[in-house]
Design brief:
By secondary structure, the chain is mainly alpha-helical. It has helices spanning 4-8, 17-24, 48-71, 78-112, 135-159, 165-204, 216-221, 248-251, and strands at 39-45, 126-132, 227-229, 254-257. The chain is 56% helix and 8% strand. The strands form two sheets. The protein has a two-stranded antiparallel ribbon with strand order 1-2. The chain has a two-stranded parallel ribbon with strand order 3-4. Helix 5 (135-159) runs antiparallel to helix 6.
């Protein structure tokens, strides 16, 4: 029989460095001006995709969803806010349904090929306590967990040649944009409602609103930080959102979307 301990000594495994690098590349999100209560939930991510998408997208989704559901109600009609909330909820449902179908399809292939075990990662899992401020945040955390569940299943199917490498890439490429789009949708809804709020403020002050209802230039002039992601920056250069403005409304101001690969 092989000497298992001696064989393991030939392999250098991760001791937490991967997680440290993932977290170090993302700036902290400033929640100090957010006065919302939160439920503290344990979260655990093992896949590279799950870890990175959680770190890069979860808190921006939370801040933008908080802006839509809480801040905008101080100045906008409830019906308008509800439409924005419905748009975010529809994206959450679409992402959850697609991931459920993908997991079911992977499980069927496991059964068809007699595969009984799932590939595991040699890097340490990312384990943390998550502060969930809303139902949107809770449901997005569930979506991210499903993505994290799917990734090693696809890798297992490729290892056993139940799927080709190309087929695995196609399935990954189908799932990840759906998850990313939830955060992008929240950013778009928050941006739209902030512009409506700026236009209402301008009208109340007796001055003409800027074309488009208030853009990023006007917001910067107010001293507000923008929260979100840029659609053109590569993911490796993507800084996390940092908010430090003079009011809770400014602290959750959304910005351009920065999709994660």
């Amino acid at each position: 029989m092989p000497d298992t301990a001696r064989t393991q000594d030939l392999v250098i495994t991760d001791a937490g460095g991967v997680n440290a690098r993932i977290l170090a590349r993302e700036a902290r999100v400033d929640f100090r001006r957010i006065e919302a209560a939160s439920v503290k939930l344990p979260a655990r991510f093992t896949s590279a995709e799950g870890k990175r998408m959680f770190v890069r997208l979860f808190n921006t989704l939370q801040l933008n969803a908080h802006f839509v559901s809480v801040i905008t109600r101080t100045k906008l009609d409830a019906a308008e806010v509800q439409r924005a909330e419905a748009g975010i909820r529809a994206r959450l449902e679409a992402a959850g349904a697609l991931l459920n179908d993908s997991i079911d399809a992977a499980e069927a292939l496991f059964k068809a090929h007699g595969i009984t075990g799932i590939a595991s990662y040699d890097t340490l899992p990312l384990e943390l306590e998550v502060h969930v401020m809303s139902s949107a945040g809770r449901r997005y955390l569930e979506v991210l967990a499903k993505l994290d569940q799917l990734m090693p299943m696809l890798q297992t199917l490729e290892i056993h040649e139940a799927l080709s490498a190309e087929e695995v890439d196609q399935r990954r490429a189908k799932a990840k944009p759906q998850v990313r789009e939830v955060a992008n949708a929240a950013r778009r809804q928050a941006t739209l409602l902030r512009r409506r709020m700026n236009a209402a403020d301008a009208a109340a002050a007796g001055r003409q609103p800027v074309r488009g209802g208030g853009g990023a230039g006007d917001l910067a002039a107010e001293g507000a930080e923008l929260v979100g992601m840029s659609e053109t920056d590569p993911p490796d250069e993507m800084p996390g959102p940092v908010c430090d403005a003079g009011s809770e409304a400014d602290a959750v101001l959304p910005a351009e979307a920065r999709p994660v690969a």
